[in-house]
Amino acid sequence: MRRITCVHQGYELYGSDRSFCETVRTIREAYPQAWIDVVLPKAGPIVASLEGAASRIVIEPIWVLRRRNLLRLATLGMAALPFAVARALRRIRASDLVYVNTTVVADYLLAARLLPGRTVVHVHEIPEGATLTVLRSLIRWSRANIVFNSRATQAAFAMPKDATARVVYNGIAGPAVPNPARYDGNRPLRVLMLGRISRIKGQEVLVEAIRQLPEAVRSRVELKIVGSAFEDDAREAALAAQVAEAGLSRQVACSPFVAEPDSLYRWADVVAVPSQLPESLGRVAIEALAYGIPPLVSGIGGLTEIVEDRATGWVVPPGSAEALSRTLAEIVTRPDLWRDYPAAARARYERIFDEKLAAEGIAAMLRLTLQREPARVRDARAPADAASKSAG
């Protein structure tokens, strides 16, 4: 019996968590008789989504590099690192294959070097500055096989030519039936922003963009911001205060994280992803395509590989509340200009981001790793228009 270990740094059910669950299900489908351990740092909403795919869910400490606790990790946390690496090494030794979701799981990547040829790391982030330098060095040290979730991610990490790596876009299981194209300007435009509340995601910029709309247009917009801050109540309170101070309490509703967002996507006309720093890809934008909802995104990182500007959605400069406001005004007042976007969005999802396509790419890397072959795997060829028709 094959023994496979899947390691994830989170325990909630946001985009990266849902992508991890889908990968575990892919592994289960590829190796139905395997024993699959899933290692998490804490129990949470993700556990229920893993049941049926995992043979066992193990809750134990993981040495995770998070920006907010780097100082603690560099001081007190260093004492725990040797024990964390030893624990990871035991799991790798007991496994035929170890799948590590994201680059921040430092203990497993450090241990992977000691037992080469067993580990796959799935890169879902585009860090900057010193953080990128640290994480790039960590992957190179590990000599793990690499799956990048976009060409933007691959370019950011710039691995050496002899690295075993491929690009596999995150695929999702979309709804069988997309939303009908229904906005005609006779009711308020329903805008959804779904995701963790953080400085990276841009909730504050979106609120400011709505505040800048002319009153006649602002009254024709309804915005739902759905999500919670990671252990940061002050950030949630600051966002609520911004909405109130801008006089937008009637237009903007803030609500906490929900595990199942289907009803929200069914409500929305447009999904906003106004990220301020590079998204490695952007799962929420892909989910919007699957529902036939045009996304309104920042022209940064992998988001430009998802959305075709003025064809399947809109792309605006990151950090510009003015540009975002102008685009929203056009969306509200000129629905005739984007009548064809919903159907085009769904077609793009089916062509590029369907879960079957992602599963094939992941399964190919797993097979190669289990073969213990040193031969390099060149980048999987994503559909040509995903790379060549980028927006922004």
From TrEMBL:
SUPFAM superfamilies, per database record: UDP-Glycosyltransferase/glycogen phosphorylase
Glycosyl transferase family domain span: 189-346
Gene3D superfamilies reported in the protein's UniProt record: Glycogen Phosphorylase B (3.40.50.2000)
Protein name (record): D-inositol-3-phosphate glycosyltransferase
Species this protein is from: Methylobacterium cerastii
Gene: mshA_5
